[in-house]
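As described in the Methods, two query proteins were run sequentially through the folding procedure within a single session, without resetting any intermediate state between them. The first query and its resulting structure tokens are shown here.
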Amino acid sequence: MVEVMSRLNGDQLSCWERDGFLVVEDAFSAAACETLRARALDLVDAFDPTDDVSVFDTNDQSHAQDDYFLGSGDQIRFFLEEGVTDGSGRLTTAKSEAVNKIGHAMHDLDDVFDGFSRDQTVESIASDIGFIDPLLLQSMYIFKSPRVGGEVTWHTDHTFLWTEPQSVVGFWVAIDDATVENGCMWAVPGGHTGLPRRRFRRDGSGGTTMDVFNPDPWNIDSAVPIEARQGTLVLLHGSLPHGSGPNTSDKSRHAYTVHVIEGQSVYPADNWLQRAESIPFRGFQPRS
């Protein structure tokens, strides 16, 4: 077994445990980020927007009821921004700006995303924060294009990527500089210590449902912006309330996220994200 070198120091680990998020600057080079951007744009270029795709809107979860979304756990699929098509379904803006995100298995199905997601930096940090048997669960390339990039409402990742016990951590990478002006993330420091409030799951009849344990909204009065230069890695605890505003600026805010879970946790069969048995979740080992 190859020894994984530590990346985080004691102060960083203390911040992670206290705040539920951690900003690691210069985790990836500008060249690595630009390579990922180029690959994402290549995928979009080959994408046919006249296919039966979903509109991704966190204020309206209707996309979560369709087969295109529910079958994306082991696919590379494209999700559009709200309001980028006309009454006939034709795009009203450039294709590269109309896509909200690509998901959810690029890290296993595409060589470029595979290499980026399984970079030694990610593996080392996963070990540093306590993962024993880390599995890469899902990936998303998020575009947040100028003037059309939509809001992501306040949520926790555990709600959507449930394990027992909670184990999911988001590894979010700034492909562009993320600022308040172009819709950077916001989070509630220490908010990860609260009990789960919601769980999103399959309902057993082909759709999804949201179990609500506590209907109260999160207190976001103490929320802080997480501005991040290109190449910065932001760790997000699965129970941390976070969100982002729309991009009303003229600058893009591309980002890439891979979510990691603990293989020793239970991954329920009614989680929305499922895979064919032929494509199991995989850790940091190379593809066989």
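Immediately afterward, the second query was submitted; its sequence and tokens are:
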Amino acid sequence: MKLYHSPASPFVRKVCVLLHELEQTDQVALEPVTTTALSSADILIASNPLGKIPALERDDGPTLYDSRVICAYLDHRFGGGLYPDGPARWEVLTLEATGDGIMESGVSMTYETRLRPPTEQSPAWIEAQWAKAERAVAALNRRWMGHLAGSLDMGHISVACALAYLDFRHPQRDWRRGNTDLAAWFAGFESRPAMQATVPPAA
């Protein structure tokens, strides 16, 4: 299998952390591509018409895209158990969606400041995206710490990659302020070998 990726993408990092946690990194080759909201590499578009990463090219089926689809597929294929059955499954999916939503807001903020000239940037848009992320982080600290203290699942990975992305691209926002329990949890989680092996390069 081949994963079209960029190491700076938090959505790609989710997939890579999962592969490390399941000890299956040798099963997926990493294919670097350059893509932004304004342009995508032709090789990526040939596999994913949306031109987005990550995209997982398989030998036995069509290319999969969207990090949630890819993570669910890989977890199923390798028997990882990161998406439990029963009522707990819905909590995991909701927590994963919360982490992904934080990533979406953070990436949108990054694109607004990096891809648009200053005269075309919308401070209101940037602040609206940050408000979404800020509310979600506060909800994690208020509602989800019991779950995060439990056994590893895909919700943990999504949340950790989201918080790491805020540190990576928006450190001045200081998501830890007022969220001490979540900050303490993340300090432990980011030391896991799977997280350390997937730290994006400074850029």
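The two ends are 28 Å apart (CA to CA). We note this only descriptively and draw no conclusion about the first query from it.
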